[in-house]
């Protein structure tokens, strides 16, 4: 940072974020011109692959790979210019060249139009084509719109066209048809003296509009293909929910079925969530580009926005409904799981109560057995103590110290010993078990 700066140190992303507004500037296009635009999906295509292909252009053999780091590059290749743009899912190549002075309006003119870039170079662009457009831009007075529209129609032959004025300074005409050559055709008639920068902005908006429209529609086949699976999952989930009401239904079987259903939904979500989210994002860009055209109606035709939205909106609604349906299934499975968990918890609680009741019965039986054993223990202890006393009395008799029979003395001692042992046992119970 400059030592004389009056500002604190820059954030690491400051320059990148500040320059983002200038990241993809429109080209300066001198009219009349023809723009050949090709957009390819770049899944599996590296920057090195695209760099190697760009180096095959005339005069670009020394192009450094670092030049592609900004995701945008404009090259001057003799009689034409090339604009390269890399996005998250696709890469766009736009060739701008002058429109030949002898080019006459006609349905076959654009298909037969000679290109300054080698056709072999276009065919070898790395990736899979999903959009290809030839855009003609010419200067014509628009003071009388019907005559301008008639000239625009001439480029499309018998095809029905849609047309719009753009900001009052230009007229765009197209038929949204894919030719045998693989290209769509768009014709723009701009007021004489249209600045090159304005022509570049018009071109950029129209090309982005069609590119993002096609990217937005990529979620539609996935949504349609997912419909049958979602219907099957909904039926399965309804059956599982109905079985939850039956008391005799096995919780283990219900859990297995629910896990299997949840796995199918989560797999579908993981597989299609990005595509559905991208569809909404691309559709939002289409809406923005349409608003930037500042369209005006041309008598006798639909505007681009009316034609596009009438066909695009149902597709986007289908994708949105499928995404919501998928999210709703996830929520329903969560609620079913909660119900099953509650049912299992209740069953477990009932089993625990049964176990506690059985444990209580066992404890009472054990106490009775313990009382029986204690009774036998009293008798055994008394027997051994009296036996010892008998030996003691016999010894006293042998020494002449006992005037009566030792057996009589032992018999008399039995109640005393029994009472003493019983009282000692009670004292021990009170000490360890707090018995009264």
Structural class: alpha+beta
As laid out across the biggest beta sheet, the strand order is 2-3-4-1-5-8-7-6-9
Number of alpha- plus pi-helical segments: 10
Radius of gyration: 46 Å
Task: List how many beta strands DSSP finds.
Answer: 9
Q: Report helical residue fraction.
A: 55-70%
Stretches where pLDDT is under 50 for at least 5 consecutive residues are none
Secondary-structure element series: HEHEEEHHEHEEEHHHEHH
Mean pLDDT: 84
**End-to-end span in angstroms?**
89 Å
CA-based shape = rod-shaped
What amount of the residues lies in strands?
5-15%
Largest sheet: 9 strands, mixed
Organism: Pelomonas parva
Protein name: DUF3422 family protein
Transmembrane segments: 373-392, 404-422
Keywords: Membrane, Transmembrane, Transmembrane helix
Q: What does this entry look like structurally?
A:
The protein is of the alpha+beta class. Helices cover 56% and strands 14% of the residues. The chain has a nine-stranded mixed β-sheet with strand order 2-3-4-1-5-8-7-6-9, with helices on both faces. The model has no long low-confidence stretch (mean pLDDT 84).
């Amino acid at each position: 940072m400059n030592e004389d700066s009056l500002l604190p140190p820059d954030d690491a992303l400051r320059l990148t974020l500040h320059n983002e507004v200038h990241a993809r500037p429109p080209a300066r296009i001198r009219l009349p011109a023809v723009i050949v635009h090709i957009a390819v999906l770049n899944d599996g295509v590296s920057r090195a692959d695209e760099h190697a292909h760009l180096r095959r252009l005339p005069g670009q053999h020394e192009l450094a790979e670092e030049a592609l780091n900004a995701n945008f590059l404009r090259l001057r290749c003799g009689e034409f210019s090339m604009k390269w743009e890399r996005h998250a899912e696709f890469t766009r190549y736009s060739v701008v060249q002058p429109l030949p002075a002898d080019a006459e309006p006609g349905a076959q003119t654009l298909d037969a139009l000679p290109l300054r870039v080698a056709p072999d170079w276009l065919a070898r662009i790395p990736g899979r084509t999903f959009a290809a457009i030839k855009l003609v831009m010419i200067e014509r007075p628009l003071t009388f719109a019907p005559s301008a529209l008639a000239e625009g129609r001439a480029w499309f032959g018998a095809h029905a066209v849609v047309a719009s004025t753009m900001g009052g300074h230009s007229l765009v005409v197209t038929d949204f048809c894919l030719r045998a050559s693989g290209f769509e055709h768009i014709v723009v008639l701009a007021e004489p003296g249209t600045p090159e920068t304005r022509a570049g902005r018009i071109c950029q908006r129209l090309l982005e509009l069609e590119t993002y429209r096609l990217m937005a529609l990529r979620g539609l086949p996935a949504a349609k293909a997912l419909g049958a699976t979602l219907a099957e999952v909904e039926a399965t989930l309804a059956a599982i929910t109905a079985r939850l009401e039956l008391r005799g239904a096995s919780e283990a079987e219900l859990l297995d079925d629910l896990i299997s259903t949840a796995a199918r939904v989560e797999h579908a979500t993981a597989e299609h969530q990005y595509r559905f989210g991208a569809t909404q994002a691309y559709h939002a860009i289409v809406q923005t580009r349409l608003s930037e055209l500042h369209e005006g109606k041309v008598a006798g035709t639909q505007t681009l926005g009316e034609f596009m939205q009438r066909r695009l909106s149902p597709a986007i609604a289908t994708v949105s409904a499928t995404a919501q349906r998928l999210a709703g299934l996830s929520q329903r499975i969560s609620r079913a799981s909660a119900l099953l968990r509650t049912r299992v918890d209740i069953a477990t609680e009932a089993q625990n109560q049964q176990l506690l009741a059985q444990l209580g019965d066992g404890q009472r039986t054990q106490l009775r057995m313990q009382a029986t054993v204690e009774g036998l223990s009293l008798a055994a202890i008394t027997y051994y103590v009296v036996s010892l006393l008998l030996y003691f009395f016999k010894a006293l008799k042998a020494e002449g110290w006992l005037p009566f029979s030792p057996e009589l003395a032992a018999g008399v001692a039995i109640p005393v010993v029994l009472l003493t042992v019983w009282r000692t046992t009670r004292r021990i119970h009170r000490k360890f078990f707090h018995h009264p």
